[in-house]
Design a protein that fits this description.
The chain is α/β, with parallel strands linked by helices. The chain has two domains: 120 residues, 2-Layer Sandwich (Nucleotidyltransferase, domain 5), CATH 3.30.420.40; 141 residues, Nucleotidyltransferase, domain 5 (2-Layer Sandwich), CATH 3.30.420. Helices cover 40% and strands 24% of the residues. The protein contains ten helices and 15 strands. Strands 3-2-1-4-8 form a five-stranded mixed beta sheet. The protein has a five-stranded mixed beta sheet with strand order 11-10-9-14-15. The protein has a three-stranded antiparallel beta sheet with strand order 5-6-7, with no helix packed on it. Helix 3 packs across helix 10, helix 6 packs across helix 7 and helix 7 packs across helix 8.
C-alpha cells in the first residue's frame, strides 16, 4: 500500500448497521454509523442507507471509497451477490451505483478480506508479508495476504476454510460460535462468563473448542505456512479460555515442528479494523 496523502472513505456493511469513516493515512478523521433495513424487500432501501452514511463523512477532497460486505463479491465488476443477512441483495451492482453517485473510484471486497487487509496495514500484521486474518465469530472465514498482497482467488472465494469438510460437518460447525449452540445449546459469550467463574462444563466446552480450532489452524498451516494468524470476531475475545488446548493440539499433532515454533497467533484489538480494511482497498488497488 503506497503512502496516501489524500483522504479515502471506508465502509463496513453488516446485517444490522453500516459504518463509514473518512481516513487519511493512519488517522480516522470522521466516522458515522447508521442502522440498515436488512429485511426490507426493496434492495434500494439499503443502498440508499449506504449512500447516506457515506454522505455523512464525505468531503470534496475524498479520492476513493472502499466497501466491505459479508457476502460473495465480484471485486472486478463490483457486484455484490447473495448477502445472507440482507435477503433482498441477491445481485447489487454497488460499484457502479456508488461511482455514479460520488464520482470517485470504488473498490469492493468481502468482510473477511477487509479484516485481513485492515490488520495488514493498520493492526497486528503491519509489514508482515504472509498472514491470515481469521474471523472466528458466528461463522468462520479468513482473508489471505500472500507476498504482501491481498489474495482473492478467481471468484473472491479464497480463504473460506470454514467450509472445508471436518468430522461429520465442516470446520465452521466446530470452530465458531456454532459449536456452543450445537453442543451446549447456548452462545459462546454466556458460556465464557460461566467459564471465568470456574464452571467445569464451560471450561470443558472451551477446551474442546480449542482442540477443534487447533485442527483448523493446522489445516491453514499445511496449506499456506503464514508468518502470522490474526484472529478477530466475537469468539476470539475468549482466546485465554482456549489458548492452551489450541496450542497443545498443534504442538502435539503438527508434522513440521519448526513451523509451529515460528508461528505467531495474535488477537485483533482494534474495533475499527473492518472499516480501516475497507479503506485500505482503495490503496491496495490504486
Amino acid at each position: 500500500m503506497s503512502e496516501n496523502h489524500l483522504p479515502v472513505i471506508g465502509v463496513d456493511l453488516g446485517g444490522t448497521k453500516v459504518k463509514a469513516a473518512r481516513i487519511l493515512g493512519q488517522e480516522v478523521l470522521q466516522s458515522a454509523t447508521l442502522p440498515v433495513s436488512a429485511h426490507s424487500p426493496d434492495p434500494h432501501i439499503v443502498i440508499q442507507e449506504v449512500i447516506e452514511v457515506i454522505k455523512s463523512v464525505w468531503q470534496p477532497e475524498v479520492q476513493a471509497i472502499g466497501v466491505g460486505v459479508p457476502s460473495v463479491v465480484d471485486p472486478v465488476r463490483g457486484i455484490v451477490y447473495d448477502v445472507q443477512n440482507i435477503p433482498s441483495w441477491t445481485e447489487v451492482r454497488l460499484k457502479d451505483i456508488l461511482e455514479t453517485t460520488f464520482q470517485v473510484p470504488v473498490q469492493l471486497n468481502n468482510d473477511a478480506n477487509c479484516f485481513a487487509l485492515g490488520e495488514k496495514y493498520f493492526g497486528k500484521g503491519r509489514d508482515c508479508q504472509n498472514m491470515i486474518g481469521l474471523i472466528v465469530g458466528t461463522g468462520m472465514a479468513a482473508g489471505l495476504v500472500i507476498s504482501g498482497r491481498l489474495y482473492n482467488g478467481r471468484h473472491c472465494g479464497a480463504g473460506e476454510f470454514g467450509m472445508l469438510p471436518y468430522l461429520d460437518h465442516n470446520f465452521e460447525y466446530y470452530c465458531s460460535g456454532q459449536f456452543f449452540q450445537h453442543f451446549y445449546n447456548t452462545d459462546g459469550q454466556l458460556l465464557a462468563q460461566r467459564a471465568k467463574t470456574g464452571d467445569p462444563t464451560a471450561l470443558t466446552a472451551f477446551s474442546d473448542f480449542g482442540k477443534h480450532l487447533g485442527n483448523a489452524i493446522m489445516a491453514l498451516l499445511y496449506a499456506l505456512d503464514p508468518d502470522l494468524i490474526v484472529m478477530g470476531g466475537s469468539v476470539s475475545k475468549a482466546y485465554p479460555l482456549f489458548r492452551e488446548s489450541l496450542w497443545a493440539q498443534c504442538t502435539q499433532s503438527f508434522a513440521y515442528k519448526p513451523v509451529i515454533a515460528d508461528l505467531t497467533i495474535a488477537i485483533s484489538d482494534n474495533e475499527a479494523i473492518p472499516v480501516l480494511g475497507a479503506a485500505a482497498l482503495c490503496l491496495e488497488y490504486n
